[in-house]
Predict the structure.
Amino acid sequence: MKKYIDQGKNDTRSGFGAGLTELGRTNPNVVALCADLVGSLKMEKFIEENPERFFQIGIAEANMMGIAAGLTIGGKIPFTGTFANFSTGRVYDQIRQSIAYSDKNVKICASHAGVTLGEDGATHQILEDLGLMKMLPGMTVINTCDYNQTKAATIAIAEHHGPVYLRFGRPKVANFTPVDQKFEIGKAVMLNEGTDVTIVATGHLVWEALIAAENLEKQGISAEVINIHTIKPLDGEAVLKSVKKTGCVVTAEEHNYLGGLGESISGFLATTHPTPQEFVATKDTFGESGTPEQLMDKYGLNNKAIVNAVVNVLKRK
Amino acid sequence: MPKLQELQDLTVQVRRDILRMVHKVNSGHPGGSLGCTEFIVALYNEVMELKDGFDMDGKDEDLFFLSNGHISPVFYSVLARKGYFPVEELNTFRLIDSRLQGHPTTHEGLPGVRIASGSLGQGMSVALGAAQAKKLNKDSKLVYTLHGDGELQEGQNWEAIMYAAGKKVDNIISTIDYNGQQIDGATNDVLPMGDLKKKFEAFGWDVLDIKEGNDLEAVIKGMKEAKSRTGKGKPVCVLLHTVMGHGVDFMMYTHAWHGKAPNDEQLATALGQNPETLGDY
C-alpha cells in the first residue's frame, strides 16, 4: 500500500490561520471576522498584517453572520471564525436567510468541530454541523483532514463564489497531505487503491482510515481509501467508480451518522448503485469531556473502529 | 419644495398599489406598508443618493435595507415606480414564479433588493456589514435601514445596536417604524419595550424623533436632519412615529390589518379614500 508520511503533527486550525494569512497578502478583498476567539482560530497573523480588514465582533455570532453578509455587498470576501457549534446551530437562521438564501459570498470557517475539542464537553462539541450546513441550498460543505489540506482549502474557497462552510478542528494531528497539493472543491482524493472494500473518510478520520488500511493489509484485505474533503457537492463519480470495483463501503467521520458524510454516500448509492455500507460515526449521541484520544476511542471514531466496520461490511457483500 | 405635490401624488398611488397587491392574492401585510408609505417614498425620491440602474455592490450610492421584510408591498411599489423594474410586475406579487416573493429576496434577482428579509431581526447586522464595506472602499455614501418596533424584540438587534455604537459605525441611519403595534396586539401588551429613545441613547446612538411619520414634509425634513448627523462618530437612529394602516380609515389605530387583506368591498372603500394619481399598474 501507498505509504504516507506524517510531516509533523499540527492542528488543522493552524492550517486555516496560515491560509488566511496568505490570503491577506494576496487578495485585498478578503476580510476576516471573529466572535472573541482570535487565538483559538489562529487569526493573529492576519490581524497583525491587516488590522483594517479585521472585524472583532465580540460574543455575538448572529450579528457576525449578518455583518459578514453585508460586507459582501461592496465586494468583500468575508471569512468568519468561531467554533463549529457557534458557526452553525447557534446562527442557523442567520446563515439560512442572510447568507444562503441571499446568495452571499461568505466563508464560514469553523474550528473545534466534533468530539476532539475534548475537555470542554458536549456543549461545545457539535456533531450535527455537517448535516445542518449540507441541507442549506447552495452551501458548499468542506471538512479537511490535516494542516496542509486546511491551508490549501482556505485559499481555494476565496476563489469560489458562493457560501462555504469550512470545518476543521482543535487537536494536533498527522500532517500528510503533500504541501503542494492543489485543493479542488468537490473532487475526492484517492489515497490508496484497493480491491476488497472502499473506505471513504473525511476530516480527522482520514488519517485513521490510512492506519486502518495498513492494518487490514496485514490481514490480507485490500482497502481503497478515499479522502472526501468536500461533503457537498459530493464527488459521486469517485465513490461510484470505487464501489463498483470493491462492492462495499465504510464511511468514516467525526459526526453523527444522521446527517453526515455517510448519509450523503448512502443516499447517493441508493439511487445509483446500492451497496452494503457501514458507518463509522457517532450514533445519535452527544459527546462528553475527555481527551480527544479517549473520546475518539469511546465513540468509535478511530482506526480500530474502521477495521471493525470493514470486517462487518465484508460479511454483507 | 417643488417636488412635494409630485411626491404626495406618488404616496397616494403607492397606497393604491399596496391595497391592490394584497387584495389580489388575499394575503400580505397592508398595515405596516401603509404606515411606512411616506417614509419609503421620501427615502427613494428625496433622501437617498442613488445611481441609475442597479448593481448588487451599490458602490458610490446610498443603500437601503428593509429588515421588516413583511412590508414588502410598499417596498416593491416604490422600487417599481422608481424604475427598478416594470410597474406591471406588481401584478405578480406573491404568485408562483414571481420575483416579488411574499418577503423580499435576492434569490429571484429582483433589482433593488440586496438581502432577503422576513425572518426578523437580521437587517441591521447586514446593514452594518455594508456600512463597514463602504468605509473600507472609501465610499462616503450612507446606509439606511428600516425596522419594525416589535421587531426589536429579536435579540440580534441589540447585538447590532451595541456593535454599531461600539465600533463607531457612523454612516448608518436606522429607522424604527414606531407604530406601537405587532401581530398579536399593541407592543405594550405583547412585550413592552420601555423607552426606546433612552435605550438607543444608552447604547451610544444619536437618536431623533420624527413625530409625524405620515407627513411627507416632516419625514423629508427629519431624514435630512438625520443625514446631517452622520459622520460624527455615532450611528443615527430615527424613531419614526407612524400609524399602522395610515391612509385607510378603517385600517388605522389597530393591529387587525397587520397581515390581512381587504375583501372586494373593503378594497373599494380603501381605494375611494386614495384616488388614482399616477395611474394604476
